[in-house]
């Protein structure tokens, strides 16, 4: 059986830290808490689980703090988490089994990271992250913000999920770090440009975000996932700015970097639907229903891969009076969301029209989320 050190960096995490540590403390062999300046009860909560609490003077550099946390580990493998992450019981059991059975030749184990949930608690979006790494490999974190762990060696992809339960978010913090770096005259890498654009977007500085995305595209980054995501974020900025044609062009630009992703097909469906070009909208939604998962590491929108395009097809076919088609797609939605109030209302309404032989246009409910 392998041994595991949990390494975390924290600051003012009294609202979430107990949930995190309670979900993992009995699986790991060591807990290292690196505090970067808490003024609340974070340290007191941490002391319920470990005596290994270390102070780190914050220098606006997440990678430096992560590397310091890794330096405190003494066990074979290192697990890293944020204070608002936690394991559900089924994933705790999977983790226990992994600990018992992991081949010690494995250098890194990836896990799913469940980021967002719908109203029924189903996973809406997820990615993969490298979570458990062999200490002897001396992996290092890089970049002051949106830090990443440079890995190599033998990799294992597990089906264990870490759940993200953020309760608060300081939008200005990361942006301030980037702008401080610019003020010092630093030259941004393509990855910096991408993440700086994202931070500007999060802070509703949309025009400035678009400038950074264009700089990023011009830098010709080799990272497919970032390229595709940048297209999506740029399209979102244009959508919020009311620049519809530019939004569409950014969505189509994503196809320059990879095969059509289901999320972008759905968004193009939304675009054509909003512009009353229903046949084109239907075409994009139908294409979305035929795309399988092409990858497992980038952001996955589970709704787009399952029920969302069928819901939109229900709406369009209902509006066109094509009741049988609307009913067919609503039933597919219901297979994923059997207790959804609006989906059940659609079923009742459409069955009534089918029974009466009514073919006039109707408008089914449209709730359930968007891409």
Number of domains: 3
| Continuous helix count | 15
What is the CATH topology classification name of the largest domain? Spore Coat Polysaccharide Biosynthesis Protein SpsA, Chain A
What percent of residues are in strands? 15-25%
Could you tell me the radius of gyration in angstroms?
A: 23 Å
The number of E-state strands comes to 11
Distance between the termini: 42 Å
Overall geometry comes to globular
For the record, what CATH class of the largest domain applies? Answer: Alpha Beta
Low-confidence runs = none
Could you say which structural class the secondary elements and strand pairing correspond to?
alpha/beta
CATH architecture of the largest domain: Alpha-Beta Complex
Average predicted confidence as pLDDT: 93
Q: Secondary-structure element order, as H and E?
A: EHEHEHEEHEEEEEHHHHHHHEHHHH
- At the fourth level of CATH, the homologous superfamily of the largest domain is Spore Coat Polysaccharide Biosynthesis Protein SpsA, Chain A
Query: Helical percent range?
Result: 40-55%
Could you describe the 3D structure shown?
The structure is a single chain. The protein has 371 residues and is of the alpha/beta class. It has three domains: 4-164, Spore Coat Polysaccharide Biosynthesis Protein SpsA, Chain A, CATH 3.90.550; 171-258, Serine Threonine Protein Phosphatase 5, Tetratricopeptide repeat (Alpha Horseshoe), CATH 1.25.40.10; 276-371, no CATH class. It has 15 helices and eleven strands. Strand 8 and strand 9 form a beta hairpin. The protein is globular, with a radius of gyration of 23 Å. The two termini are 42 Å apart. Residues 5-135 form the Glycosyltransferase 2-like domain.
